[in-house]
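A reminder before we start the practical. When you read a complex entry, don't treat the lines as separate problems. The point of joint prediction is that each chain is placed relative to the others, so the output describes one connected object in space. Small molecules and nucleic acid strands, if listed, are placed in the same frame. In the example below there are four entries. Take a minute to note the order of the lines before looking further.
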Amino acid sequence: MTGRIPVAVLGATGAVGQTFVRLLDGHPTFQVTEVAASERSADRRYGDIVHWHEGACPGDVADLTVLRADPAMVKAPVVFSALDASVAGEVEAAFAAAGRVVLSNAKNHRMEADVPLVVSEVNAGHLDLLEVQKKNRGWDGAIVANANCAATVMALALAPLHEAFGVRSVFATTLQAVSGAGYPGVASLDILGNVIPEIAGEEEKIEQELGKILGSLEGGRVIAASFPVSAHANRVAVEHGHTVCMSVGLDRPATPEEARSVFESWRGASVCAGLPSAPDRPVIVRSESDRPQARRDVDAGDGMSVVVGRIREDAILDLRLVVLGHNTVRGAAGGSILNGEIMVRLGMIDSPS
Amino acid sequence: MTGRIPVAVLGATGAVGQTFVRLLDGHPTFQVTEVAASERSADRRYGDIVHWHEGACPGDVADLTVLRADPAMVKAPVVFSALDASVAGEVEAAFAAAGRVVLSNAKNHRMEADVPLVVSEVNAGHLDLLEVQKKNRGWDGAIVANANCAATVMALALAPLHEAFGVRSVFATTLQAVSGAGYPGVASLDILGNVIPEIAGEEEKIEQELGKILGSLEGGRVIAASFPVSAHANRVAVEHGHTVCMSVGLDRPATPEEARSVFESWRGASVCAGLPSAPDRPVIVRSESDRPQARRDVDAGDGMSVVVGRIREDAILDLRLVVLGHNTVRGAAGGSILNGEIMVRLGMIDSPS
Amino acid sequence: MTGRIPVAVLGATGAVGQTFVRLLDGHPTFQVTEVAASERSADRRYGDIVHWHEGACPGDVADLTVLRADPAMVKAPVVFSALDASVAGEVEAAFAAAGRVVLSNAKNHRMEADVPLVVSEVNAGHLDLLEVQKKNRGWDGAIVANANCAATVMALALAPLHEAFGVRSVFATTLQAVSGAGYPGVASLDILGNVIPEIAGEEEKIEQELGKILGSLEGGRVIAASFPVSAHANRVAVEHGHTVCMSVGLDRPATPEEARSVFESWRGASVCAGLPSAPDRPVIVRSESDRPQARRDVDAGDGMSVVVGRIREDAILDLRLVVLGHNTVRGAAGGSILNGEIMVRLGMIDSPS
Amino acid sequence: MTGRIPVAVLGATGAVGQTFVRLLDGHPTFQVTEVAASERSADRRYGDIVHWHEGACPGDVADLTVLRADPAMVKAPVVFSALDASVAGEVEAAFAAAGRVVLSNAKNHRMEADVPLVVSEVNAGHLDLLEVQKKNRGWDGAIVANANCAATVMALALAPLHEAFGVRSVFATTLQAVSGAGYPGVASLDILGNVIPEIAGEEEKIEQELGKILGSLEGGRVIAASFPVSAHANRVAVEHGHTVCMSVGLDRPATPEEARSVFESWRGASVCAGLPSAPDRPVIVRSESDRPQARRDVDAGDGMSVVVGRIREDAILDLRLVVLGHNTVRGAAGGSILNGEIMVRLGMIDSPS
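Here is the predicted structure of the whole assembly.
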């Protein structure tokens, strides 16, 4: 345990909470020392109440007693929050006010002007907003948000294009996995042999968050990227992995070959290089005409890479392509952890002495 | 049996062939008197060799002996063709040359200049091309094509908008059912828990066929509608029903409410009214925010209506919406049968004396 | 409307409640005049609060105001109960005490000695228990239970064998549809690409209820059939239709051919003949080696027939076979309605004057 | 490459063939130096023609040129055969006659008296049959078969019970994954939302092979275990993992607790201990009431362990339980590889000098 930073997982029994516990098992920098959940789970052994979804719950975490999600109960200096949006707003703020670094998956604080909304390789630099946040809020802690799962996947595919050619407009249709809705989430009667052509609030999140993520930090605020996004969100009978079909308009037109070359050389923010959760390649290009596929490509880069394929011309804009990413890893818990690793590297989170 | 027109089904053992047999069971105008299939099925009892998919094979057809798909063997004056594209080109032409009316589901002849490509309510008037066809080809018979299944569903949603406002551009992402690939078609290992982001040739068919269907017949030829279509085709784990997410640009901008009103009042070509396979409403609008859904709405209008929902504004073009239609009924066999019913009504197919 | 008996559906918003509403739409004997549900749905328009699953909600029922499930509020003399087991016990008893005929789908009263547990064609004669029930309970109303969905399907396959050969022992493995768990019921994350080898309480219900259903009514009580049942219950990714694999030991050994002949000639209790919900054949035998199949055979007899197939010898007992039935129709709402139709025919429910 | 034994994979493009290639990637003892497939694939680059299913094809194998499955072309002293049964009989015999050790997944030779049918931990001792085989056949090579996938999973659960208590009779219902049918295998139209209650020939294989596997080798022949097996085979919409519900009769009755204890202490044939593909525990017991589950437990022990759960009393025989195993790993390629590792350890396969 020496040398590892103690962390707490808030909302630890849910689908994203479990993913935090799973991904942090054996992590070289962080160690889960506390788990917190709702009132009715408090004071019970984590392993006894969690309905564990994948493989087996790590034994040391299983033995932890579940705490209430309250900074008076939870002592860790760093908290990964998988809290539901219905409570995340207040609870996360309370933790930040109590001096903790909160890495949040909830939507509540994402669009606040002084909260960095960070997809690590895309805009790690936005973490500098924390200075503004601390000043504004008068607290010692911090809230760093990661983005909506579909927005995260799209941001990783759009960032290389935006940097190289300038993105001018985006059409996007998502085919999203059921794990994105948490557990129990989508009822089997709703999705077996079916497509649900709506995910409440998702299209708005995609449209808003992409602008902020791909925006530039100037004078203590983020100037949002200004391209319009037309999003169509769908739920499909897939366990993990959001597929997004996109048509992209560019400021400086590019051929599919040029775009491919940009994707293949892109590594994103250099601060990520070599971090434990950083994939070798944030964007992997597959050349087969029928890839990426959710079930077959979702674990690329241990779930931290997005996979791009079918880069081709578009009849209206410039390029058409398909991008796939792991919604609960890259688009949720894994993204938060990578943000935390960056903050340790940058000294924004103290290492144990 | 008196009064019914004898018809043959070519390719009768496949998925679309079976749908023809099922939909024609008890039909008031047509009676299946012959079934034809590949050489290796010939001379056997249809009921013995067909791997029947839905419910039970109608008894009178089950007892038919399978013929070779050859106009020398098949006598019916009208043939519904569910032949595979690998053979449909020549065989259908042979039947037309032998004086038969061929209603084809294959792609082979669709884009030929003198072959009407007909989605009944949209462009029944294109049947007038048959005069040109007969003159060009020097045959007494005729080939009438119906469109690709996804193109058919889209055409029914676009036609009311095109008539009312003029369509200027279309983004479309399809989520297509496995039955569109025939039987055995898509391997279960490819589609369980997965999305396949490619259907070979489908995007090109959609882009080309829509222009012809929504084009105008002038001076013996179809002037294609000229709007660009950006199509993204996907296969999903749905049995029947193609879902299409569309963003549509219009010549004369319209609000979602205006579009909805246009859809609700649209009935299409008046020649369809009251025909046995014509739905009361070719386009049904649902107002729930999570409809249409493939499994729940695919049988609207006995599978002959398309269902439109989620009509809303678009950030780039004018409107976003979702449309769903039954791919093997509306998009294949049912569409052919309705075309045949129109031809009977117009005297292009002789009624029995 | 004259001539139809007014009925109420209790628990009308759930999956089985909706099935009642759907099956009773246009029913010649019964008319849904009231719908009741939980407190929080009361006083609202049914069509506004029901999350309707299949097709469209019948318009006249959609316009009803939802009542509380209380005999002081609900006036109909006949109530079909789709209440959850957590409340069904008391509420159904209150309705019976208030003089109403309650046709119940809940497990609460099934195994009570004076409550008939009726699978119509198998043991309609058990309705005579109602005399005992009225005397015991001192009420004018009645409670008639139908059986667990899997037990119902099995009972229809075992009854012909029991009558002809005597059943001595049964091994049964069920592969049950998700709709058997109601809505939202089974989480999609639990069942996509998965089998759940447990349905809480189901094996016990099957083992107990089969004995009572196939028992004989003697001296005012049911002498349970005494054969042991070894049940293995599983949930599978099927929407509707429970498949059951059975090995059956018989008192008088029979060949598969003899069993098949018995199934094909069996029509069950003659009181069912010609009733609106009675299928022509309660048991249909299919001879194809790969049938019955849930998706393809679930609607046999409008969902009121069970389908038997693969009748073959068993290495340990006498016969192996597969039976399939529609769990929410035959195994729930449809079974209750057919029981009600019998009661009307027998004068146990008054017809309107 | 020094020190590794060169091996060939026959039938390398199919589902099991790919699993061989995947599992042998980085194997410490074996190295894939040749791949063979049907005539039409010969002379092409493996990576160019294989439709790879999981992750990415190992690069060194991708670069191999596909050979014809002929001992004149293929040089490796050890061949893993994933050949289809239509050709495996002759081809495997030809390789054995040419002095090669053939580890076969096909059914062709399994029930021949001098061919060991080996589930490693259960009956590694049957490899001694090879002496008889060599004498009988007059060849220097050998054929070792592994069992049907469902039979393998069952054998691993039955062996501990058989050793401890004696198995007297078995009822078994399988719920088998689609990957067991190879690729393309089961059509998606057949399995989406469905159960297929038949797998041609499977029930017979299970009944016969279990007797041989659990039999004893005496005097140069296997005396089959004599208990009857009643098998019901089903295909379900699961990608990988066969679930089997079993009722088991024992010679010396045991309680569920005693059975559980036996499973937990069982390690099987000691020759397997520590081999690269041998799991720490061939049988893992899970105590949750709803496990094992195909999607969640299939990869236990890297796919080489079977998982047993729901051990409980049976109303007719002694015990009921559920067992799950990975059909293409444990039940096919992985089982063959472990058999090969045993043969190296025992000197039946020569190590490179």
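Discuss with your neighbour: The mean pLDDT of chain C is 96. What might explain this?
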